[in-house]
Amino acid sequence: MRTIKAALASTALICATPALAQDFGAYGYDTMRDLALNYPGRFTGAPDSGTTFFNAAQYMRDRLSFGGNAVVRQDFTATSRSGATLGPSQNLVVSMPGASDRFIVVGAHFDSAGTSPDLQGVDDNASGAGVLTELAAHMTGLSTDVGLEFVAFGAEEVGLQGAAHYVDTLGGRRDDMAGMINIDSLITGDFMYAHAGTEYLENPALLSLWTRAHAIADELGIDLRSNPGRNPDYPINTGCCSDAAVFEGYGIPILWLEATNWDLGDLDGYTQTDNPVIPGGSTWHDPTEDNWDFLLAALGPERFEQRMRDYARILTRLLVEETGADLVASSQDAALSAAQIADLATRQQADLAALSLRATRDRLGADAPFGQITPSIAVQGLATPDSSATFGRDGGAALMARAGASYQVAPGLSLGGQLAYARTGDDLRSGDDLESTGYQLSLDAAYAMNDDWVIGAVSWGKSDLEGTRDFVLRSGLGATIVERDFDWSTNAYTLGARVQAGRDYALASGVTYGPVVGLDYSRTRIGGFSEGSGDRRAVTYAGQAIESLEVQLGGRVGTDLAVAGRDVTLSAQGTLVHDLAEGAPSRIRVTDSTGNDRRVTLDGQDRNFARIGLSAQTALSDQADAWVTLDSRIGHDAGSQATVGAGLGLRF
Question: Cα–Cα distances in Å, from 256 out to 31, 58, 155?
Answer without folding.
Answer: 21, 26, 18
